[in-house]
């Protein structure tokens, strides 16, 4: 396979890549110039033709999302989702660290296409360094006249604010993000109204992921056809992949969506294989929320379609955590359950109570007091939660249940063996306290 | 109006009201916590989910949506079809009830809410009797959140009704949420307690025993309480209320749904304003004086004595020497009976409107709202029936004067006989009035609490609190609203309506509705009374 020419990461490793000067010297701010010479509708059309699917997790086509904005609107707001709270995921982080101007350029293009007057870049609070980098780049862009009034001599004006969250996973959910931006508790909103109609401050609003927007300069510069030539039809364009765990080269890589989980772990230009002779036992390939793969399922393609064939929720963030054979799956269950138990915002009954119950059960199993029936109880609890059956307002509980369900289904023999090997009577004796 | 189909049955409802409301109004017992018709939609408890027919997103063909939908969030539109009695819906209800109880203490034996708890009721009706939870429950703390209210966080079902109430109705924003997930709690900010003139409503709308009223705390099990439909006498707004009582003691007041007047709410002043019922200064038995001789005759003998003394007085002094001071705390019926008696005895007697207590300014809610944003108003007119008594006076015509004029004329000796009605929950007799009545030979004082007029009165009649009476009040908006009696008068007492009925020459038992019929024959306005709609038991 011919080496992939990086697109989104082409400036990684370049000296002072975060400065406007370097970004421009390497061909930056050309896509936006082209865009501003077209009509907004033409830009939307181009992005639709490129079939740019959202990189934030749901994979919804960006151009289509923009066309949901009401035609007769007078104000539009754009939110850039840089919350990136999904465990093992750091695609957005790398993009902001290495190429903030690419994001700014993409934001201007999306802003123009949607006719937004203001854009807010919403960063998770833990992104300290990234915040300063992005903030500095925004200031630089203002100073150069690339932001503010009449950008590049066009009639289009855009202001960008960089906003920091307060540390909640659920603020990455688009309406949780909107509430948080409004200064409220990050509670996802009930829909309708959808953000496109009534979003931030009651105005028509578009929320897009950092990586989605970072693709835009390239689509505008090189055209939709070029973009769709990368990867399969349903999963066009370059994509960032992360891999973490006991691989030789954990990190963030770019490629077409033709690579498999096995490629990501083993290829020398990617993960580089397992470290210290360890063996893969399980992989959570889409961030943790999409579910788990067993070692027999590593041929799954990291695209928008294939994960469903493996019982997973979707591509997610394409950030794989590799778990090796030395790890007790009971601990994995507990660790995952803990995350959702503490991150559920708590408004929906099933999610609030279900996530914390799953954590209690998983904790008990992990501490050697499990019962075989607990595995079924976990499965049933998982089935009783989630947005997809309509039980909840946002998708967090779907993300909470997929890893639990898939791990129990795919690793049941190991889990049962661990439970059967427990000291007798312990299950009855040990009740846990949630901490 | 829209016609929708619930479980195959056609139901008619107002356009765009929540499907949940339409179903509840039509008799379906749809479990719900977060939905409250007086608050914005949260759709977060996920108890009210139903199956709904929807156009397919691509083909636009109508079909049952694979997802369950919150019926509280879905507006009823002509022709729509929903299903409630299905396995899928019931499974969700069962799941929810299991989830609600996971961390719930189930301390019903010591919980004030037991007996009127929606968690108990729904668990019984929709839940599973057995819990599969073997782990330790999380115990969120009990908190003192304000002068009148306790919050038992561990019993909370997180419906956020209370938070939305302080945001949307009182507009005082004291309540908020802290933490996440199952550790989520309702709380106040340090130093900013829940303390606003409408805060008691949060206890009413809390579907469980999380928010509790200190005033009622551990006072009585609710199933021992009887209830009477009443009208709050606290101000001229005329909120419809329930008087909950047992063993002739009033335990608490709760608002009744009364659209356009108080909707679902009442104020704290009204809510806690019933304590004077048990005031130790209550007058409990009648006193009749002749010279220095005071007796407490049988109630049965009183009408004749009163009639005789008044007729004799009119014969000796003339009818224009007679006056009656009516109170804005009287019911319309009582006022009418007294006027009947006075005008029968002396057509030229003078009728007087007693003092109308006013305090401060009207208070509107949400705080700061004006115009049609106002959801509730506490009026500064602190009595229930000024309008009603005025209607009676207008209809009665003849000699009338203001209260100030009465005091002045009485002081000048213009009146030798007077019937003065009080019933005010606070001390109300002024020095001037006290002095002026010195000139009155035949004085009747009908009052609730002992006062200085009584020492010289020829007749002292105990007035009852509104909770012991029955009749109607006319509120500031002109609505004639009937109220029932809840408790009996204190030992030795008798309902004002009863003795006035007899004194006015009627035989048998006083009954507000019967008197209203008599009144309506002479004052047509009393043909139309305002009664709040009766709500299905399971609607709140
Ligand atoms: C619980 C939850 C957390 C999410 N977190 C993120 C996030 O951190 N970053 C992100 O871009 N999208 C996140 N999403 C997805 C967003 O809701 C939304 O779909 C996305 O930002 C849209 O951008 P895109 O169309 O460009 O992908 C999350 C969704 C859920 C349900
Ligand atoms: S599903 Fe969970 S995280 Fe999402 S809104 Fe409901 S409680 Fe909050
Ligand atoms: S809130 Fe209801 S279920 Fe809970 S302890 Fe009180 S009465 Fe029992
Ligand atoms: S305290 Fe009561 S009203 Fe408030 S959220 Fe909890 S259950 Fe609901
Ligand atoms: S009543 Fe509908 S979700 Fe709570």
Keywords, separated by commas or semicolons:
heterodimer, A: 435 residues, alpha/beta, Rossmann fold, Ubiquitin-like (UB roll), de novo design (two linked rop proteins), 3 domains, five-stranded mixed beta sheet, four-stranded parallel beta sheet, 40% helix, disordered C terminus, B: 540 residues, alpha+beta, Alpha-Beta Plaits, eight-stranded mixed beta sheet, six-stranded mixed beta sheet, 13 helices, 26 strands, 20% strand, elongated, binds flavin mononucleotide, binds iron/sulfur cluster, binds FE2/S2 (inorganic) cluster
Describe the structure.
The complex is a heterodimer of chains A (435) and B (540). Chain A is of the alpha/beta class and 435 residues long. Chain A has 18 helices and nine strands. Chain A starts with 19 loop residues before the first helix and ends in a 6-residue tail after the last helix. By secondary structure, chain B is α+β, with helices and mostly antiparallel strands. Chain B has three domains: 84 residues, Ubiquitin-like (UB roll) (Roll); 143 residues, Alpha-Beta Plaits (2-Layer Sandwich); 214 residues, 3-Layer(aba) Sandwich (Rossmann fold), CATH 3.40.50.740. In chain B, 23% of the residues lie in helices and 20% in strands. Chain B is elongated, with a radius of gyration of 28 Å. The structure holds flavin mononucleotide (FMN), iron/sulfur cluster (3 copies) and FE2/S2 (inorganic) cluster. The site of one iron/sulfur cluster has 14 residues of chain A, from helix 14 and helix 16.
What is the overall shape of chain B?
elongated
Task: Output mean pLDDT of chain B.
Answer: 96
Largest interface: A-B, 35 and 39 residues
Unreliable residue runs of chain A: 431-435
Strand order of the largest sheet of chain B: 16-15-24-23-22-17-18-21
The small molecules bound here are:
flavin mononucleotide, iron/sulfur cluster, FE2/S2 (inorganic) cluster
Tell me the overall shape of chain A: globular
Strand composition percent of chain A: 5-15%
Q: How far is the first residue's CA from the last residue's CA of chain A?
A: 50 Å
- The tally of structural domains of chain A comes to 3
Q: What is the multimeric organization of the chains shown?
A: heterodimer
């Amino acid at each position: 396979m011919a080496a992939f020419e990086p697109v989104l990461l082409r400036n990684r490793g370049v000296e002072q890549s975060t400065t406007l000067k370097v970004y421009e010297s390497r061909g930056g701010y050309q896509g936006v110039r082209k865009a501003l010479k077209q009509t907004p509708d033409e830009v939307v059309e181009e992005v639709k033709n490129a079939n740019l699917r959202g990189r934030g997790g749901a994979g919804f086509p960006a151009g289509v999302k923009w066309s949901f904005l009401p035609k007769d609107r007078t104000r539009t707001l754009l939110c850039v989702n840089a919350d990136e709270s999904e465990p093992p995921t750091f695609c957005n982080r790398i993009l902001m660290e290495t190429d903030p101007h690419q994001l700014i350029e993409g934001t201007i293009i999306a802003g123009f296409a949607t006719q937004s007057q203001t854009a807010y870049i919403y960063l998770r609070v833990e992104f300290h360094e990234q915040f300063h980098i992005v903030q500095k780049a925004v200031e630089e862009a203002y100073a150069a006249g690339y932001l503010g009034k009449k950008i590049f001599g066009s009639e289009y004006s855009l202001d960008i604010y960089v906003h920091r969250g307060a540390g909640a996973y659920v603020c990455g959910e688009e309406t949780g993000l909107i509430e948080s931006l409004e200064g409220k508790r990050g509670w996802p909103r009930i829909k309708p109204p959808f953000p496109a109609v009534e979003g931030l401050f009651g105005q028509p609003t578009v929320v897009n992921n950092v990586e989605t927007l970072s693709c835009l300069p390239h689509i505008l510069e090189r055209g939709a056809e070029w973009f769709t030539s990368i990867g399969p039809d349903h999963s066009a364009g370059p994509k960032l992949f992360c891999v973490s765990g006991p691989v030789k080269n954990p990190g963030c890589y770019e490629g077409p969506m033709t690579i498999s989980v096995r490629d990501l772990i083993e290829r020398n230009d990617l993960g580089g294989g397992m470290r210290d002779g360890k063996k893969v036992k399980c992989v959570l390939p889409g961030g943790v929320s999409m579910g788990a793969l067993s070692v027999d399922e590593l041929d799954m393609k990291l695209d928008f379609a294939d994960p469903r064939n493996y019982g997973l929720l979707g591509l997610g963030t394409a950030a794989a955590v590799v778990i090796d054979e030395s790890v007790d799956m009971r601990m994995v269950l507990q660790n995952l359950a803990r995350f959702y138990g503490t991150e559920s915002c708590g408004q929906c009954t099933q999610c609030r109570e279900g996530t914390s119950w799953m954590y209690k059960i998983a904790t008990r199993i992990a501490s050697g007091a499990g019962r075989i029936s607990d595995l079924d109880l976990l499965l049933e609890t998982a089935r009783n939660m989630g947005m997809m059956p309509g039980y909840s307002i946002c998708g967090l509980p779907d993300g909470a249940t997929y890893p639990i369900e898939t791990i129990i289904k795919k690793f049941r023999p190991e889990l049962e063996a661990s439970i059967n090997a427990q000291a007798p009577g312990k299950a009855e004796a040990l009740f846990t306290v949630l901490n | 109006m829209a016609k929708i189909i619930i479980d195959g049955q056609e139901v008619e409802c107002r356009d765009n009201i929540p499907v949940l409301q339409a179903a509840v109004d039509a008799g379906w017992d749809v479990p719900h916590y977060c939905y409250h018709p007086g608050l914005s939609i949260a759709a977060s408890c996920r108890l009210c989910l139903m199956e709904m027919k929807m156009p397919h997103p691509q083909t636009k063909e109508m079909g049952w949506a694979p997802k369950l939908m919150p019926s509280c969030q879905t507006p009823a539109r002509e022709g729509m079809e929903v299903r409630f009695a299905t396995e899928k819906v019931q499974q969700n209800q069962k799941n929810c009830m299991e989830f609600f109880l996971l961390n719930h203490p189930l301390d019903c034996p010591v919980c004030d809410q037991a007996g009127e708890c929606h968690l108990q009721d729904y668990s019984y009706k929709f839940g599973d009797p057995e819990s599969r939870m073997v782990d330790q429950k999380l115990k969120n703390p009990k908190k003192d959140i304000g002068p009148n209210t306790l919050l038992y966080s561990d019993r909370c079902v997180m419906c956020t009704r209370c938070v939305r109430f302080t945001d949307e109705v009182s507009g005082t924003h004291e309540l908020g949420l802290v933490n996440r997930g199952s550790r989520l709690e309702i709380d106040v900010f340090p130093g900013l307690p829940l303390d606003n003139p409408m805060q008691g409503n949060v206890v009413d709308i809390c579907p469980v025993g999380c928010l509790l009223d200190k005033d009622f705390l551990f006072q009585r099990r609710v199933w021992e309480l009887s209830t009477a439909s009443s009208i709050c006498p606290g101000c001229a707004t005329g909120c419809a209320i329930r008087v909950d009582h047992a063993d002739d003691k009033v335990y608490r007041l709760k608002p009744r749904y009364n659209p356009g007047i108080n909707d679902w709410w009442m104020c704290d002043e009204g809510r806690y304003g019933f304590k004077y019922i048990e005031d130790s200064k209550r007058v409990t038995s009648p006193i009749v004086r002749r010279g220095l001789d005071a007796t407490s005759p049988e109630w049965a003998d009183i009408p004749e004595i009163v009639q005789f003394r008044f007729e004799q007085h009119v014969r000796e002094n003339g009818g224009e020497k007679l006056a009656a001071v009516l109170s804005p705390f009287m019911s319309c019926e009582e006022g009418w009976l007294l006027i009947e008696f006075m005008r029968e005895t002396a057509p030229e007697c003078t009728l007087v409107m007693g003092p109308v207590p006013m305090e401060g300014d009207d208070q509107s809610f949400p705080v700061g709202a004006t115009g049609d944003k106002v959801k509730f108003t506490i009026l500064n007119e602190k009595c229930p029936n000024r309008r009603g008594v005025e209607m009676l006076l207008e209809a009665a015509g003849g000699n009338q004067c203001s209260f100030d004029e009465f005091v002045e004329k009485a002081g000048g000796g213009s009146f030798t006989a007077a019937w003065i009605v009080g019933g005010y929950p606070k001390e109300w007799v002024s020095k001037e009035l006290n002095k002026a009545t010195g000139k009155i030979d035949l004085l009747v004082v009908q009052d609730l609490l002992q006062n200085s007029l009584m020492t010289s009165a020829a007749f002292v009649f105990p007035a009852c609190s509104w909770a012991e009476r029955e009749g109607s009040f006319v509120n500031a908006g002109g609505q004639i609203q009937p109220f029932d009696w809840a408790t009996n008068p204190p030992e030795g007492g008798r309902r004002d309506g009863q003795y006035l009925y007899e004194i006015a020459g009627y035989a048998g038992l006083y009954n507000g509705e019967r008197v209203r019929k008599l009144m309506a024959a002479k004052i047509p306005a009393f043909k139309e009374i305002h009664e709040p709609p009766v709500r299905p038991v399971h609607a709140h």
